[in-house]
Amino acid sequence: MVQFSGGQSSNRKYQAMQIWKYVGFASLLIWFYILHDINNEFSVVSDHKDQLTSQHPYQPKSQQKCRPLRDVSHYSTSTVHYPIETDSAGRQNSKYDSCLEFKCDWNSTTNTHCDTFGPTVYNDPTNPPCCVHILRDMAAAFDAVMCKLGYEYFSSYGMLLGLVRNDKLIPWTSDNDYIATERTLAAMYDMSIEDKKVWDDHGLAFFFDNYYHRVCVTNKFMNGKLAKLWTTRSYEWYPLVYPYADIFIAKELSSNGNNSNMSVIKDQLGCAHSMDSFRPAQRRGVYQNSFQVSMPNDAEKVLERVYGSTWRIPDKEKRPHGDTKCKG
């Protein structure tokens, strides 16, 4: 056995203590970073329960700049179809052939499960996605289409009400509501092959069924995520079962009869608004700024005209289509 002097032994003890001190410090650092990463992981999961990612998949930042508005002045207002009043004409149900028939959760629309900012859950094999979340995704897709094609439109009625009041759609709503002028609608139906592809790529179909100008989702909606698990067949009329969107017609009118000076916009439900309350349309971020939609220039003024001064108070009866009568 080798023997060391007292000085050598003391020196080696000191060196050993120094080594263990550094090892202990390094171990603490390693555990700090491990715990830090675990905490971040749980924070992300927790935060995403009621939050969307920074941008909606239909509206990445690179695509938020819209094409300049198309000039639709040369289109005739006489080519726009208005709802047929007689019952004998009937709705053209064949127009819905391209629409996806799917299951979604209506029952939870008034509960916290669906009345949230959280992302739509398409991949749960046991629970269908919330209907109001699908309507949210439809709103993002519709805006992306109109933005890319350069068409003017305005979110309206119950859709506008929910987005302005709560930054999200009314949880018990059954559809999205839009307004477009007669000439804009005429231009929208005058689709080129390229225009049709834009609608198709975003999983939306647009048509007139003798009563409404309507938008539905197709099997390509959200890259086929909805169709993958939740396609179904129903013998009921499409809009009574599945979320959809209506585009209401607006007339551009003059307050003094001079057609060269359009100062009033009158919607399909008979509400007349000053033109400056609608134009220029404003693109506003909704759902925690995860995507944008087009709104009237003075959305609050329009809502007060349609719903009265109490428009900020939710409907106690929770009517799916609201109470859209001019009250202002």
From TrEMBL:
Keywords: Membrane, Transmembrane, Transmembrane helix. The chain crosses the membrane at residues 19-36. InterPro entries: LPS_cholinephosphotransferase. This is Uncharacterized protein. It comes from Skeletonema marinoi. The lineage of its organism: Eukaryota, Sar, Stramenopiles, Ochrophyta, Bacillariophyta.
